Amino acid sequence: MLLSMTGYGKASRTYLDKTIHVEVKTLNSKALDCSTRIAPVYREKEMEIRRMIQDSVVRGKVDFSIWITKDESVDSVVVNTALAADYHRQIAALQHQLGLDAAPMTADTLVPLIMRMPDIFTRTDNEELTEEEWTVAHDAIAEALAALEAFRRQEGEALRHKFEEKLDNIASLMKQIEPYEQSRVEKIRQRLTDNLRALPGVDYDAGRLEQELIYYIEKLDISEEKQRLANHLKYFRDTMDEPLSQGKKLGFIAQEMGREINTTGSKSNQAEMQNIVVQMKDELEQIKEQVLNAL
Q1: Beta partners for residue 33, in sequence order
Q2: Closest by alpha carbon to 225, among 180, 265, 185?
Q3: If you average pLDDT over each of 93-107, 126-140, 177-191, which comes out highest?
Q4: Mean pLDDT rounded to a whole number for the chain
Q5: d(C-alpha 61, C-alpha 49), whole Å
Q6: How far is the CA of 277 from the CAs of 40, 272, 273, in angstroms?
Q7: Average pLDDT estimate for 231-235
Q8: What value, to the nearest 5°, has the Cα angle with vertex 175 and ends 170 and 176?
Q9: Is 28 in contact with 245 (CB distance < 8 Å)?
Q10: In whole angstroms, what is the distance from residue 122 CA to residue 19 CA?
Q11: Which among 14, 129, 225, 236 has the fewest CB atoms less than 10 Å away?
Q12: How far apart are CA 83 and CA 114, in angstroms?
């Protein structure tokens, strides 16, 4: 199974008068790089949230957000009436002590004064986190991470089809080399023979020439490279079928494929063969670029 490191997931859950929103986005990265934006009420659960992300994402650059929106009909700020009554009581006592009972403060002046006193307003969104609310938030996070995994699975399938296409192209190009590989033996023999005949006054042993030619051809033989490349192509396909996504392993296999293609190119002494090798390198380079997105 192949998964992409690029993904997106979101979820929303309702609890009492608030809606809990969760959003998670991922991009490719060599290791887990997690950036979080967490609503203040859930800060105490940050370590648990990070463990959930790590268990699900495994690897990649993660941008995680959880925030709350409230019903507009519900006031987020209320007056602390008990404290206001206490302020009123102290003001009345002060008036009495100062002998100002004859001219008491009116409501028009008393209410604005009390409203400016410290802590007269209380925010309702600063309540402590309850187990019931955390259960709802936890479910929202799990749902967003599940949506992220589904997205990465879908993108992984697209990557798989791309890899299959490129692997088939490399295998096909390798077969296109075979006719040139067979014909170049005779061309090499003919070129060497013609060069020897062109030398004036030089006589040569045909048997010794044949021995030297065999040695020369063996140095240019690419049979082992072809076999190893075919094995790497199969190993790449088998790795994509493993239960867990193996992006790093696929990258290592692609490097080994590159070594065999490069060696084939160094042994290709014909322009037609070298052109095919260049096409193989191009196909492999596209695999290497895309394998960076594989988990």
Answers
A1: 61
A2: 265
A3: 126-140
A4: 86
A5: 16
A6: 58, 9, 6
A7: 95
A8: 95
A9: no
A10: 21
A11: 14
A12: 9
